[in-house]
Amino acid sequence: MARPASSFRCSECGWSTVKWVGRCGECQQWGTVADVSEPASLARALKPVAPIGERRARPIAEIDVEDSAAHRPSGISEFDRVLGGGIVAGAAILLSGEPGVGKSTLLLEVAQRVAGTGRRVLYVSAEESAAQVRLRAGRTGALSPELYLAAETDLATVLGQVDAVDPDLLIVDSVQTVSSSQSDGLPGQPSQVREVASTLIRLAKERQLPVLIVGHVTKDGTIAGPRLLEHLVDVVCQFGGDRQTSLRFVRALKNRFGPTDEVGCFEMTGDGIAEVPDPSGLFLSKNRAAVSGTCVTVALEGRRALPVEVQALVVESKAPQPRRVVNGVEPSRVAMILAVLERRAGLRKLAEHDVYVSTVGGMRLIEPAADLAIAVAIASAVRDRAVPHEFAAFGEISLAGEVRPVTAARQRAAEAGRLGYSTILDEGAGSVRAAVERAMLASTSARERELDAAF
Q1: What pLDDT score was predicted for residue 110?
Q2: Which amino acids does the record list as binding ATP (predicted)?
Q3: Among residues 191, 180, 185, which one has the least CA distance to residue 15?
Q4: Could you tell me if 300 and 439 lie in one domain?
Q5: Structural domain contains residue 417
Q6: Is 102 part of any known ligand binding site?
């Protein structure tokens, strides 16, 4: 008998090593590496097997892709936008997101839309009972005679349900709660997740059955389980959003059948989830009166250009250390913009004032294209001059006070023009001082026009 070889494996990601270490070399988690003794296997030469029938290699031009690679719409245009046009037959799609963000609600809506077209859908819930899912379906209106529901946690039983129902779409919620008797360990461990995912993907390819799989995330936002899970599936989608708002976004992190820079917008309501085909007005203030300390920028979410209103408030501080409170923007970039405004744009004594910067609608701006709008909003708050409503700004600010160009500038300007923003402030301003002065001049002209109209 071969002597057992001692090896150590991480319980989080499956990384292995020949000696024990306190920290995993792959996922960098502490205390997850344990001793796993495996019998040493003897290398055996594999005998070649002659392929027969359709398994034989053929010239690539003779491969038929009309049925296997065609996108079939799911009925939700925002979800189809992210997938590249719809669901491909035999595709394995992984949808991840934080707890309570609405993954199950979204997939139940997808199941109802697909079942409404006459295709049979099997929804397997391994987290909730069938009665709980039925209650949610009744509340959201996701009832259809072609939608079949099963509450199973055993992989073999799930496969039996697929044979009995013969669906056109399979939804499994979730992969971390389904277990297989062919693998050791509890549900959710890397070995179990690997076995369940591999079986479902093999089922999808053999039967040309599209499979939607829900995946949990860890506390740092990554998908729980082995990293191999993301490599096995065809599409990896991330469903997220701010819990304080009802807006949700679906982004494709990996897509073998379409682009990875599309974003789908949804809104959580009391009746379920609703798609938002034009989210332009969600991040703008409803107040039509001109108020100082506001400026509109055009952010880029995937391929979408969205106008976002940035608000700033600057007040004199009595504390020895003035406050810097931000919401929706990067604190480090706001601190840099304040320094550039004081040094390059002539806004003095900003270090003696409390500065508050926020976005409207819970939108998070992480790209440098919002620098110019933040600078204009702060300057407007300092000088107490309101920027006109037809004014929009986008551009990156350097430490030298230069306004640098940003990506997709034409698309941003076109979207701003479509929404009625006739004055665009971008890299053409040259410097942040010139941009601020131009914005203040526009505010003065707008005020004079208002006075002339009043008299």
Answers
A1: 95
A2: 97-104
A3: 191
A4: yes
A5: yes
A6: yes
Question: 412 by DSSP, 3-state: which?
Answer: helix
HSE-CB for 299 with a 13 A CA cutoff: 29
The pLDDT value recorded for residue 453 is 47
Domain count of the fold of the chain: 3
Question: Could you say which of 244, 260, 277 is where a domain stops?
Answer: 277
Structure tokens at 302: 């995937």
- Tell me whether residue 103 is annotated as binding: yes
Return the pLDDT at 9.
83
Residues 237 and 384 in one domain: no
For 51, what's the count of Cα atoms within 13 Å in the CB-facing half-sphere? 6
C-alpha span between 248 and 276 (Å, rounded): 10
Dump the DSSP string for 29-78: -BS-EEEEEEEPPPP-PPPP----GGGS---GGG---TTTS-EE--S-HH
256 in the same domain as 129: yes
307 labelled binding-site residue: no
Range of the domain at 350: 282-454
The 10s digit of each residue's pLDDT in 140-171 is 888 899 999 999 999 999 999 999 999 999 99
Alpha helices in 276-422 (DSSP H): 331-344, 371-383, 409-418
CATH number at residue 234: 3.40.50.300
101 is in an annotated binding site: yes
When mean pLDDT is compared over 22-26, 186-190, 271-275, 430-434, the highest value belongs to 430-434
Task: Answer yes or no: is 100 a known binding residue.
Answer: yes
Mean pLDDT value across residues 433-449: 76
In a domain, 329, yes or no: yes
CATH number at residue 400: 3.30.230.10
Residues 225 and 293 in one domain: no
| Residue 104, marked binder | yes
122 token code pair: 């099997």
